From TrEMBL, chain B:
Signal peptide: none annotated. Residues 21-259 form the ABC transporter domain. It is a peripheral membrane protein. GO terms for molecular function: ATP binding. This is Amino acid ABC transporter ATP-binding protein. It comes from Brachybacterium halotolerans. The keyword Lipid metabolism does not apply.
Amino acid sequence: MWADNLPRLLLAALEVTVPLSLISFAIAMVLAVITALGRLYLPGPLKVIPWLYVWIFRGTPMVVQLFIVFFGLPNLGIVLPAMTAAVVTLALNTGAYASEAVRASILSIPRGQFEAAQTLNLSRRTTFSKVVAPQAFRIALPPLMNDFIDLVKGTSLVFAITITDLFQVGRQIAAANFQPMAMYTLVALIYLVIVSALSLLQMVLEKKVSAHVRTS
Amino acid sequence: MSAPAENEPSGARGPSLLESLRLRGVRKTFGSLTALDDVDLDIPRRGTTVLLGPSGSGKSTLLRCINLLERPDAGSIDFGDGPIRLGGRLGARTVRSVRSRSTMVFQQFNLFPHLTALGNVTLAPIHTEGVPKAKAEARGRELLEKVGLGAKADAYPDRLSGGQQQRVAIARALAMEPDVLLFDEPTSALDPELAAEVVAVLADLAREDRTLVVVTHSLAFAQRVADKVVFVEDGKVLLDGPPKDFFESEDARLRRFREMVSSAV
């Protein structure tokens, strides 16, 4: 039974769950940085725009967001393929959460770092890319990996908008062979393996960006 | 609102630098607190000016205004090529131009923790001034050598003592080749032993005929290296003259300050 079904599950993981996670997370990171910078540095009234985005996407369930994007938007004449709708929703949702991790990391940079950049006449751009970003990245890394892991598991909701992902394939097999315990445990283990890879990646990245910090 | 910039006959602005840089009418308020009350001050070139005064007197604020880390409400500064208005809204170009004249060394060092000593010293030359990397690094190593840290070029700040970190910060400031080096209580965060290393570097710089402005609580330092002592209290310059004017003054407030600071150790 395992030998028959494992390849089908792995294929669904590799063809849907993993790429959906990677693409959505990449877009989410871009959104998160733009949103965090907007909330910190946009002039007064314009700060409302990123704030509204975070408010809406953190304040509503992701599965409802998926339904609005996939089933609701066609009422307004916007018809998206299921995969596109999934990427859009997952990226927007994760971007909203991750923007707070990015914002917190920038806020944690001591004022003295900005003053040092000013007295050295660094441009705003150089200050951000050479002083703020490298330090903020180290601080934001653990919470961002949390968001990444949440996203991977969140992809299991996309079966609700007709996508045959890892979880959906598991459901189909379980429905056919009446072995839900075995099937869903197998599905859970595959998610666990994917997330373990991310945890490992986190360890490697943390070590890499902490070279300058004395740990002993 | 802003004080009128000092009027000099335009023909008198020669290419030669003034013997001093001139602050005029520098005013800074924080809410209802007047930190600087229309301060006029001449800072001699190729000399060490020491700013003394009680905590909250405005001496650090004055120093920070020279580098525009604090934006004065009014006033002007003249580096020798005409007064530049410091008050009111300033364009980005003006800010950059004023900042390019001076560089600050901070009490808390403010080194970039993710960069090595050499990386700290070369960051601005490479990215702001477009100096080729190899050249900036060669110069950076020279400067680290000069502050006695040639062997620490590749060390991260976290691996350095406070005194070493402050010396890297001095090398980083020197790499900017500013007209004026500003020091905001450079030894206050250091143990006496480590402070001595930093004072030795400062004394070396003073001997090189650089223009230094140092805010400090150390009378010993003032006595050792100052060419000029400025005593600030309540946002006003109370005394401005050669060190002996300060150390021999019979003025009650200066005497009280001298006694207080020397007994504080």
